[in-house]
Amino acid sequence: MQTVVKKWFRDKDSGILDNGSGPDIIVLKADLVNCQFLKVGATVEFECHSGHQRIIAKKVKLAQQYKGTKQKNEQRKPKEFRYGVMT
Predict the structure, then answer these.
(1) Strand pairing of 2-9 and 43-50?
(2) Which residues face 61 on adjacent strands?
(3) CA–CA dist 84, 87 (Å, integer)
(4) Would you tell me which of 5, 46, 72, 85 could form a disulfide with 38, CB atoms 3.0–4.6 Å apart?
(5) Does the 2-62 domain belong in CATH 3.40.640.10?
(6) Angle subtended at Cα 14 by Cα 54 and Cα 22, rounded to the nearest 5 degrees
(7) DSSP string computed for 48-84
(8) Which residue(s) pair with 2 in the sheet?
(9) pLDDT of 22-63, one tens digit each?
(10) Parallel, antiparallel, or unpaired for β 55-62 and 25-28?
(11) Residue 20 has what pLDDT?
């Protein structure tokens, strides 16, 4: 499934994912893949599981987002090195 991060509580190492008009989805830091926390508004992909009277997200990872008009398979070219120019 895919949705947006609604809230993230750094002090509690957990957050809430948006579920439209349904009940919110709980996400724990232990269930994050390749990241330590989530930013509000970020799009994530996850697996949905039932917990004790709530919905819990497992295997949560950031969704691939492509900016601009680049194709998904298009490789980025390395930046050309020019002497004397700060990049």
Answers:
(1) antiparallel
(2) 45
(3) 10
(4) 5
(5) no
(6) 35
(7) EEE-SSSEEEEEEEEPP---TT--TTPPPPPPPP-TT
(8) 45
(9) 888 999 999 998 888 898 998 999 998 887 888 999 999 988
(10) parallel
(11) 86
> Could you give the CA distance from residue 2 to residue 62 in angstroms, rounded to a whole number?
9
Which residue, 27, 23, 22, 18, is CA-closest to 47? 27
**Average of pLDDT values for 8-34?**
90
Model-level pTM? Answer: 0.67
Question: Can you give the residue ranges of every domain in the chain?
Answer: 2-62
Q: What tokens does 11 get?
A: 């002090």
- Between 83 and 22, whose confidence is greater? 22
Dist CA 68 CA 76 (whole Å): 13
Q: Retrieve residue 70's tokens.
A: 């680049």
